[in-house]
Design a protein that fits this description.
The structure is a single chain. The protein has 216 residues and is mainly α. It has one domain. The chain contains eight helices and no strands. The radius of gyration is 19 Å and the shape is globular. It starts with a helix and ends with a helix.
Amino acid sequence: MSGDAVASYCAAHWLELAAMAATVLGIWLTTRRLLSCWPITLLADFLYLVVFYRARLFSDALLQVFFVAFTLYGWWHWWRGVRQQGEVRVEPLGKWACGAALAVGAVGGALLGRFMIWAGGLLHVGIALPHLDATLASYSLVASWWGARKHIANWWLWIVVDLIYIAEYIYKNLWPTALLYAGLVALAVLGLRDWRRAQAAQSAACTTLRSGSPAM
């Protein structure tokens, strides 16, 4: 591809490329458990809201609105943890809580898919991949909630969701975003590895603290 072609492509897709860059940086900072991940992620949320609206992926566009709320909550929750504990600590996720969240994701996806079809018919607007897009959006909310709550399971769910998103974006000819999500899978694997190490370090520190405590 010539330099002029690259420049022309960047000029035509600058918003998607900016959203891509902000998302990658925000997730990389999240893998490092750095509080600065949240303002960068907030910027990415707003940028992708516009990108998905233009692509008629309305479930994904609506998803960004929820992402904004979760991002603000995660920012506050992590900040409070840092203030109280001095660091962002990985928190355990119980089996019942995990199962309930996955069930909510399935129900939410089904309801959102039906709503998008109804809304599209009412407004005479074509909805792209309503059921698949809605299901992925719903489970993305679950993963975002787990991330905001500092549960390591968020990375497992992101890996699955992002792999399916890659196929969806290729189908919609959103190649930069498909490439982005391939990178996000790699970042999720990195986040899973780093958060596991942090969790192991926390457990070791707690064990050392208990063994060093005087008997009552």
